[in-house]
Every structure is written in C-alpha cells, then in structure tokens.
C-alpha cells in the first residue's frame, strides 16, 4: 500500500453492452505533497497489429458488459511543476483502446474519461532519477549493454547507426524546410514555429545521444518492442518484438531507437497518444500539438514513411 502522499494514479475501465467504454482517473488523495513521492512511469512501444495477428490469449484483456479493470500508474519523477506552481491540477488519461474483432482486425474505441482533480503542494520538482544528458561533443562515449548476447549487441549497434542516420536526415530536412513541408505536415500537422522547433531540437539530439546510452536485454515480453523510464535518462530496455522487427524502415529496430529516445525528457519528453501509421496520421491532422509530442510520429517522420 502506498503512502497517502504518494501520487499513485488509478484508472478504472468499465465496459458496457453497446461496446462503449468509460475511463475514470482517481488519485488516492485530493492533495499531493512533494513530487519526490511520485514514482516512475515506464513508457512502452508495442505493435497493436502484431499483437492482434499473433492471437495469444495472454496479450488481451476481455471485458464483458459491466466488468471493469483497474490499473495503477506510478508517476514519480515524471513531472516538473515549478513553472506552473502549486495548486489545482487536472489529471487526465489517454482514451484510445482497440478491440480485436473475430478476423483479428482492430477497431478503435474512445473511452469517455472522468478526470481526477488534485491539489499539489510542497516540492514541485524531483531529480531523483535524472542523469545529465551528454554534450553533443562527447562523441567518444560508447553504448553499453546488459544481458545482451554478442549477436544482439551487433543488432543494437547497427540499429544505433541507422537511427543516427535517420535523425541526421530528419534534421537536415527540417533545417532545409524552415517553413514546413509535405513530410512535416503529414506527421506533425499544420506548421507552427514552436512545434517545428520542438521537432528540430529532438532530431538534433538524436543524431548523437543514442550512441552513449545503455541497452538492457532482460525484457522478454513478446508483444513489446522496448520501453524506457523517461526520467531515468539513457537506459533503453529492449523486448521480444524488437528482435523480430526489421533492421530499418517503419516499425524497425532503428526507428524504435528514435521512438524510445524521444521519451527521455532530455531529448523531448514525448508520450504515446497513438500507435501505428494510421492512428499517427489521424493525430497529426486532428491534434498537431499531441502529434509533435507523440513518439511514433517522430519514428515515422524519421523514416519518411
């Protein structure tokens, strides 16, 4: 049981007979004291289409009408609230869910969300898990590996090289098109100076940063590419689907490095608002701000999908 001061966010998902969903966000207390009491959230890349096609029962949650599932999300070290200050905050949640049909196709369902209202007091920033990002000039630093076979180390090294090439190409494209381009609009939506700068800075960092990260091969989840803890800079956990992915292109080992890298706050601090090309294209069209903060949009932009 977490202490009352710790911010352990609960989301309860309720199914109804008409295939609609409701999602309620709840905090254990209406008042949170000190963000040092937050716990760290993991951010994951996975392939919904691949999961549906594989059809493994353990990869799904079956909800009958009236049933609900509650999941706790530990958010320590994720938010720096010093700019906005103490006071009232609304805590929302992503509401896109996918239903697997009888033919293994996917249908999108958007849940109706009831957000949580909390008061935040005390310490407003936590640096417990933050490691300084490397300077761009530190080219000599090399990637390190944990529990990775020599074959996997070779695959990772190749992915890092390809990711750096993608990031360099993306950075060059953006600097050559400072007022936007078809490629930019496709993945990041309507051009704006602020969003353009976010994308430009992200790819600038990704040209060199991944070469100095630590790569951990202990994850065995077959449905997941990789995950990171956004506030624990520089460690990427590689999972089962990463090894089965192609070396380059969309949904590859290389663009997984791009995807996961953007999650780090020292790179950009993206979220996962949408997965897959179709959902990311829709996101760029409907919500450019979320698109530029969506990891998969950066991955697909990088490979010019």
What does this structure look like?
This protein has helices at residues 48-54, 150-176, 182-188, 193-206, 240-244, 253-263, 277-286, 288-292, 295-302; strands at residues 8-15, 21-26, 31-33, 43-46, 68-74, 87-91, 96-100, 106-110, 112-114, 116-121, 144-146, 214-216, 224-228, 235-238. It is α/β, with parallel strands linked by helices. The chain has 2 domains: 8-121, no CATH class; 144-302, Collagenase (Catalytic Domain) (3-Layer(aba) Sandwich), CATH 3.40.390. A 5-stranded mixed beta sheet has the order 4-13-14-12-11. Strands 5-1-2-9 form a 4-stranded mixed beta sheet, with no helix packed on it. Strands 3-10-6 form a 3-stranded mixed beta sheet, with no helix packed on it. Strand 7 (96-100) and strand 8 (106-110) form a beta hairpin. Keywords: Hydrolase, Metal-binding, Metalloprotease, Protease, Signal, Zinc. One of its GO terms (molecular function) is metal ion binding. InterPro entries: Fungal_M35_metalloproteases (IPR050414), Lys_MEP (IPR029463), M35_peptidyl-Lys (IPR034115), MetalloPept_cat_dom_sf (IPR024079). Residues 172-303 form the Lysine-specific metallo-endopeptidase domain.
């Amino acid at each position: 049981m977490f202490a009352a001061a710790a911010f352990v966010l609960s989301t309860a998902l309720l199914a109804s007979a008409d295939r609609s969903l409701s999602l309620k966000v709840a905090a254990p207390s209406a008042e949170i004291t000190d963000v040092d009491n937050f716990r760290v959230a993991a951010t994951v890349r996975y392939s919904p289409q691949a999961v549906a096609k594989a059809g493994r029962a353990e990869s799904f949650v079956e909800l009958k009408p009236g049933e609900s599932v509650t999941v706790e999300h530990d958010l320590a070290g994720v938010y720096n609230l010093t700019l906005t200050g103490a006071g009232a905050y609304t805590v929302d949640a992503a509401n896109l869910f996918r239903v697997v049909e009888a033919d293994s196709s996917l249908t999108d369902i958007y849940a109706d969300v009831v957000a949580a209202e909390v008061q935040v007091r005390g310490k407003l920033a936590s640096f417990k898990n933050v490691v300084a990002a490397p300077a761009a000039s530190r080219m000599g630093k090399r990637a390190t590996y944990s529990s990775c076979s020599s074959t996997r180390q070779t695959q990772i090294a190749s992915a890092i090289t390809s990711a750096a090439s993608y990031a360099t190409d993306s950075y060059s494209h953006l600097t050559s098109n400072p007022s936007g381009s078809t490629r930019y609009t496709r993945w990041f939506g309507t051009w704006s100076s602020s969003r353009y700068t976010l994308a430009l800075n992200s790819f600038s960092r990704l040209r060199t940063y991944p070469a100095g990260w630590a790569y951990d091969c202990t994850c065995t989840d077959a449905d997941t590419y990789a995950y990171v803890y956004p506030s624990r800079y520089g460690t990427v956990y590689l999972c089962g689907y990463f090894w089965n992915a192609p070396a380059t292109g969309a949904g590859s080992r290389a663009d997984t490095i791009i995807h996961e890298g953007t999650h780090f706050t020292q790179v950009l601090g993206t979220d996962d608002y949408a997965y897959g090309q179709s959902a990311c294209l829709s996101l760029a069209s409907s919500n450019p701000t979320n698109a530029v903060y969506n990891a998969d949009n950066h991955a697909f932009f990088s490979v010019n999908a």
